[in-house]
Specification:
Shape: elongated
Largest sheet: 3 strands, antiparallel
CATH architecture of the largest domain: Orthogonal Bundle
Helix content: 55-70%
Number of helices: 15
CATH class of the largest domain: Mainly Alpha
Distance between the termini: 34 Å
Oligomer: single chain
Structural class: mainly alpha
CATH topology of the largest domain: Fic-like fold
Number of domains: 2
Length: about 375
């Protein structure tokens, strides 16, 4: 980290450690920002898109059918940003859990599963606990338990220096060095107080600031990026800006990864808050809009299939589970229906006849079936 990369308008102070490397300690939030017309317009668009998505989530007859696959898609995308290779299909097939070989490595699948557990645990905790350092530690413990980063003290804030840079870098050569432990602890306390500030600034702008500050403090030895992305959704839920956990920014961040990291760094080095906030608001607008369209498409498919299966009770009994996981086996069908193997096989045959399921293995044993339109809707790439 080079001192001359930081302007006089930087959003914190540089300190030289006893080990003779520079580290960055962020200023307390909120900073002073200039809310010009373009930023006000971006805020208006994001607010509108978020409100529409929240309203849609409240109107859906069975929002759990969307929440479950949305959480899984976010888990895959957020983990992918950190280098995990598992796809949504890998995860969904693995969840059928009928003893067949897995398509992805166990480590990759477990990291994605941990993200799901962390998300679900955090959502459950919000009913009785405010967004806080305690909640952050608990979701980090869920995220990092039993996976490649489990040596990075799951659920505990770091007690040593970390840094951001390419493999092989040191605090002397890293692109960014977060605050040392003592200053980190003070910064986390200030950050937590900022989380509890109400009715002083727009929620979305406060959320954008909260996210940058967490990533700058970088309080864990591993998992900071994933926790920081989870916090965006938790913040929106706590502020009642979302009726259901349907907004996840990882797809937008992954599509604009270089801009994301550059803008975070410009906040630190030059205090450029407005470009970052504008980027964050653009992400909320685009993701909320696409999530709304995705939810409508899935609801349309469900109503179409329900109409097709109106007088086919066993096949209809499998339908909602296809929206939670569009992959099916005869074994899974039997468990869902609580029926015998022949009955489950007959129900799948009906779904094949109705062009709702198709077989994808081409073999006579251990067959997998998929509801391709549902999978396509869930895997639709961010535009």
């Amino acid at each position: 980290m080079k001192e001359n990369d930081f302007s006089a308008n930087k959003s914190g102070r540089l300190i030289r450690t006893p080990e003779d490397y520079l580290a960055f300690v962020p200023d307390r939030l909120p900073p002073k920002i200039h809310l010009d017309m373009s930023l006000a317009l971006a805020l208006s668009k994001a607010d509108s898109a978020l409100s529409e998505l929240s309203g849609l989530g409240g109107q859906l007859p069975n929002p759990h059918l969307l929440i479950s696959p949305y959480i899984r898609r976010e888990a895959v995308l957020s983990s992918r940003i950190e280098g995990t290779k598992a796809s949504l299909s890998d995860l969904l097939i693995d969840e059928i859990d009928d003893g067949n070989p897995r398509r992805a490595g166990n480590d990759d699948i477990q990291e994605v599963r941990n993200y799901i557990h962390a998300m679900e645990h955090g959502i459950a905790m919000l009913s009785s606990l405010p967004l806080s350092l305690r909640l952050v530690r608990e979701i980090h413990a869920k995220l990092m338990s039993g996976v490649r980063g489990d040596k990075a003290t799951p659920g505990e804030f770091r007690r040593s220096q970390n840094w951001i840079g390419p493999a092989g870098s040191t605090p002397m050569t890293a692109a960014f060095v977060p605050p040392p432990v003592y200053e980190m602890t003070e910064s986390l306390g200030d950050w937590e107080k900022f989380l509890h500030v109400r009715d002083v600034m727009p929620d979305l702008i406060q959320c954008a600031m909260m996210h940058v500050q967490f990533e700058t403090i970088h309080p864990f030895l591993d998992g900071n990026g994933r926790v920081g992305r989870l916090l965006v959704t938790f913040f929106m839920l706590e502020r009642k800006r979302l009726s259901q956990p349907l907004l996840y920014l990882s797809a937008f961040i992954d599509a604009h990864k270089n801009d994301y990291y550059d803008l975070l760094q410009r906040v630190r080095t030059h205090g450029d808050w407005e470009p970052w906030i504008r980027f964050f608001l653009q992400g909320v607008t685009e993701i909320a809009t696409e999530a709304g369209e995705q939810a409508k498409e899935l609801h349309r498919l469900r109503e179409q299939y329900r109409s097709q299966l109106r007088d086919k009770a066993n096949a209809l009994g499998l339908l909602d589970d296809l929206f939670i996981n569009p992959y099916m086996t005869i074994g899974r069908a039997g468990k869902v229906l609580g029926k015998t193997h022949p009955t489950a096989k007959a129900a799948i045959a009906v779904l094949e006849e109705q062009k709702i399921l198709r077989e994808i293995t081409g073999r006579q044993w251990g067959r997998y079936y998929v509801c391709q339109p549902v999978l396509d809707a869930l895997e639709k790439p961010f535009s």
